[in-house]
Amino acid sequence: MSEPARNASLHDTTSRPSTQPGPLRDWLAAMRATTPEGRQQGPEAPQPAAEASKQAGWAPRLVATVDAPQAQSQDDEVAELIAENMMLKAKLRLAADRQDEFQILLAQEIRELRGHVTEEIAKLEDLREERDLWKARCEALMQPLFNGTR
């Protein structure tokens, strides 16, 4: 970097006197003439910060936050949404726990029903065997009667 560039001030206020008009000065004048709502102030109500900056040289411009109630309402809405989200998550957890309990109960009932069906099938098989045994005995008893008449 060249030596003059290092020594040059970034905010050189002497290059343009305050009486000379320019785009930045016009913009600053327009900003000082408007309130935060965008309405023009009359010449009878100058801003205190503008007067202080004229007397003391340069002072930072104070900007009133107009969006503070809106920001507060947005924070309240976000807090309400977070609370609602937490409640919904808790309800979802409870529903999932209940569903797990129902699935456990259903599985147990299905096991008991399978056991009962297995017992009933075993009883049915026993009855079939007994039926087949009695049928065979009846046929054995009836066969001499049918053979003798022929």
From TrEMBL:
Superkingdom assignment: Bacteria
Name the record gives this protein: Uncharacterized protein
Region ranges (Disordered): 1-72
Composition bias, Low complexity: 36-52
Compositionally biased residues, Polar residues: 10-21
